[in-house]
Amino acid sequence: MLANHAWKVAAFCFCISIVLWLARFDNRFDIQLVYSFSNGLIAWALIDGGRFFIDQQSPYLFPRGVKGVALILFGAVVGYIGGTWLGNLYAGYSTWDFLNHTPRMGAYFLTFSIGTGVLISYFFYAQGKSAWLITELEATRRQGTEAQLRLLQSQLQPHMLFNTLANLRALIATDPQRATAMLDRFNDYLRATLSASRQPMHPLADEFDRLRDYLELMAMRMGPRLAYTLDLPDDLRSAPIPPLLLQSLAENAIQHGLEPHVAGGQVTVRAKSDGALVTIEIEDNGAGCTPLAEMAHLPPDDPTKATTGFGISQVRERLANTYGKQGNIKIVAARAGGTLASVQFPAQHQAPPAPIGYRSE
Amino acid sequence: MQITALIAEDEPLLAKALQTELALAWPELQVAATVGDGLSAVQKTLELKPDLLFFDVRMPGLDGLDAAADIADQWPQDQPLPILIFVTAYDQYAVQAFERQAVDYLLKPVQSARLQQCLERIKPLASARYAQAATKNIAYSNDQTLTQLRQLRQLRTPPASSAPHAAPLARIQASVGNSIHMVAIDEVLYFEAADKYVRVITKGKEYLIRTPIKDLLPQLDPHVFWQIHRSTLVRASAITQVLRDEAGKQSIALQGSSDKLAVSRLYAHLFKPM
Q1: Main-chain phi, psi angles of B253, to 5 degrees
Q2: pLDDT above 50: residue B203
Q3: Which A residues in the span 168-227 are in contact with B, Cβ-Cβ below 8 Å?
Q4: Pair A295, A330: CB distance under 8 Å
Q5: Cβ–Cβ of A167/B13 closer than 8 Å?
Q6: Does the beta-carbon distance from A163 to B12 stay under 8 Å?
């Protein structure tokens, strides 16, 4: 890259030589060349070389702020002095005598040198910065794509996918009718999982259907280790709720509540209402809830939530996004040992409040 | 010479499917038992002493790797360990680890072609195992299995999400009632897993934290804290003596505590005389 700069600087010096030679009283082009080249190359060497030693953290390899300006001025001035000295050597006369007699010409030459130094420096700086910005943009785009892929992968939950497929395969030979019924449920489950973000709300009846899909598939896999009940009163069937809000709670109930227990257990989901508020309870009679309950009170970006508890923080976020202060979730110990997750939200849903700054679904 | 196998798989349909596929691919193989959780897997394996183990990596109770470690610990020293085949639906890190350690594994759903391939490798190993019982090669091949198991444990956890060169933990934060106690890492003698918690033992006190051993391990300096058992991390400088009982089991005596810590066979290689 320095070599690239070097020949560009040489080209500039050449052009400047021509301009100055044509404009000055001096008629020797070669003398002008020596002055311009030595001035330009010394200034360039100092600026382009010096920038590596000053401000090494600068992202685009040029000192930021005052240091950058100082470097340019330093390079330009020293270039002028050195260039003039070399030129004098070559030409055989002394510019200093000339300058002493007409200091104004001296000031003119010096200003000219600094001016071109600044312009050329800016030229290289602008080139370098735009190259850097382009690589940054590409990197950001790539990260965005990778993040999307990761999100999709986490939604799909490969473990659930492959285990369910394995169970379906086992059923095909032994119980083909059940296999077909389960395959239909799996179809619906996948469809819902992949498109959950598109709809802002859907009726509670649909939400319970999705829950039934998931719990049926898990029951196929876990056999006698999972029993479940879904209880939705008729008058609540049309109550609106964000899609798949309850699924992550059902997943938690199974993964943290029932999976660790050798005997498994029971998951119960019931909806009730007192007119203004709808309460949905997801209860399991498995392992205790202490770690999970404590996590529900941690702030959303707490690192302990990285693996476990992620479902709950997401539920809280979604409730806050949709219902503001009126939507909340509580996790407590259930009477039968095990955990009770209780979600509450208003039965009548108005327009969502202004975004609080959370990433929206 | 009847070769026997034990299947440990928590999803009943899959256990049945594996049994069916095995019966087709290796009719002479007798499945001695099928269990649905890690604890039963350990218990039944020690009771029936099968030649082959088909272990699901994820199971309730103890997972496949922990169950294998416990079996190795309690297996008689003078008998060859059973041949382990792990079964997993999807576990990218586990699969990478299996490949690296040349440990046999099967992906769910278990397909006949892949099972045939696996069994082609296993069948001669199973016969060789009987031959070994008569010779002195047992110690050597058991050592190999133990090394494989130990390496698997290290490889299967995903790389630490925090900066790889982050400084090791300087203190442990343990909640006691309504407050949090800061325990300097220099005071900790050992960590021991107990149920859902991990005990943090210092000279005079004991604390409980929720971070599991496998999450603590990458955050601690491996030169300071050694893993001697799947549930125990001990400060190496606090070890005064390593005792061995008649059955060949090693245990550690500590400076500053009267507790004796059991050393798993997987980590016995750490304590060889110079």
Answers
A1: -100, 140
A2: yes
A3: 169-171, 173-174, 220-225
A4: no
A5: yes
A6: no
Strand order in the sheet with A328-333: A226-231, A265-273, A277-284, A339-346, A328-333
For residues B257 and B6, give the distance between their C-alpha atoms in angstroms, rounded to a whole number.
41
Counting Cβ atoms within 10 Å, is residue A277 exposed (0-12), middle (13-18) or buried (19+)? middle
Residue numbers in chain A where pLDDT is lower than 70: 25-27, 59-60, 93, 95-99, 101, 153-154, 196-198, 288-311, 349-361
Tokens representing residue A317 in the block: 């976020």
- Whole-angstrom Cα distance, residue B62 to residue B59? 6
End-to-end CA gap in chain A: 46
3-state DSSP call for residue B169? coil
* Rounded-to-integer distance, Cα B29 and Cα B228, Å: 36
Q: B4-8, B36-40, B253-257: which range is least confident on average?
A: B253-257
Tokens matching residue A218: 């898990």
Residue type at A267 in one-letter notation: V
Q: Is A301 on the interface with B (CB under 8 A)?
A: no
Helix (H, G, I), strand (E, B) or coil at A202: strand
CA torsion through residues A108, A113, A116, A117, sign: negative
Nearest Cα residue in chain A from B108:
A166
pLDDT higher than 80, residue B207 = yes
Is the Cβ of B37 closer than 8 Å to some Cβ of chain A?
yes
On whether any CB of chain A is under 8 Å from the CB of B51, the answer is: no
Q: Tell me the average pLDDT across B43-58.
A: 95
Structural tokens at position B130: 């009987």
Q: pLDDT exceeding 90 applies to what percent of chain B?
A: 53
pLDDT digits (tens, 9 = 90+) for B170-182: 888 888 888 889 9
Q: How many CB atoms lie within 10 A of CB A9?
A: 21
User: What distance in Å separates residue A173's CA from the closest CA in chain B?
Assistant: 10
Q: For every residue of A300-361, which 3-state class applies, written as one string?
A: CCCHHHCCCCHHHHHHHHHHHHHHHHHCEEEEEECCCCCEEEEEEEECCCCCCCCCCCCCCC
Q: Does B210 touch chain A (CB under 8 A)?
A: yes
Whole-structure pTM value: 0.71
